[in-house]
Amino acid sequence: MQKLYKCPRDDCSWKFSCASKLRRHLDSHSKQKNHACPECGTRFKTWYNVLYHVRTIHHGNEKPFKCPVRLCEITCTSAVQLHRHFHIDHLNLTLFWLDGSYI
Asked: How much is the pTM?
């Protein structure tokens, strides 16, 4: 998938496959904190940060994202953390273990 939408800031190299993801990313550069935690009212720049805050602070460090590699017990609080774990700990090492099939 091509990433045609580049962040317009000179100090940022992020690119996205759709305009909506770029718009969401632009919130991270804002000084405004427009997104509030529904449980305590703490304000954040992005809705993603609110979700992460709720999972880690209010819901006992909830980790709903489980590694798909057989025999790996890692769970993560976000898809980004799971992606990072998978690429660092498994990529090029256990691709053939995914769901018991070979890639």
From this structure: 0.54
